[in-house]
């Protein structure tokens, strides 16, 4: 858990506090099944007094282990997540349903940072931009060389037309 005392920030009208943390996946309660993190998570940002709310503006970056969507090789890639959240004091009126609430001048930023990291992961990643993937016939890795398989396929519904064109 990452708890921050915001009493000093709330005293000043335009109060702010710089943040700089080096975290582990355990600090953010991220399991290896959710995200395989291979480097420390570096969190930098600022907490600002925005009148009725405390505003968190931060960036979290780390390295994660992924599997290529084309050739199935395991590789590591950089992950950058922007964190922008509002924290409302307990008992405040007109609070959004999914808003974060704090009590006793203690802000827990664990959940917004965790959510931002998990949501920043791309659905599919490539080991490199020009990855050629696997051969659909023999399963060979096309990045290592051409396997020589014939990969032209004809839709079976159109096979009769192919015969018609030949005649």
Mean pLDDT figure: 88
Characterize the biggest β-sheet: 5 strands, mixed
Q: Give the percentage of residues in beta strands.
A: 25-35%
Radius of gyration: 25 Å
The helix fraction, in percent, is 10-25%
Task: Characterise this structure.
The chain is α+β, with helices and mostly antiparallel strands and 167 residues long. The chain is 14% helix and 34% strand. It is built from three helices and seven strands. It has helices at residues 7-11, 110-120, 159-166, and strands at residues 3-5, 16-23, 41-49, 54-67, 74-89, 100-102, 106-108. The strands form two sheets. Strands 2-3-4-5-6 form a five-stranded mixed sheet. The protein has a two-stranded antiparallel sheet with strand order 1-7. The longest helix is centred in the C-terminal third of the chain and has 11 residues, at 110-120.
Give a brief outline of the structure:
The chain has 167 residues and is of the alpha+beta class. Helix content is 14%, strand content 34%.
Could you outline the blueprint of secondary structure elements for this entry?
Blueprint: E1 3-5, H1 7-11, E2 16-23, E3 41-49, E4 54-67, E5 74-89, E6 100-102, E7 106-108, H2 110-120, H3 159-166
Parallel strand pairs: 5-6
Antiparallel strand pairs: 1-7, 2-3, 3-4, 4-5
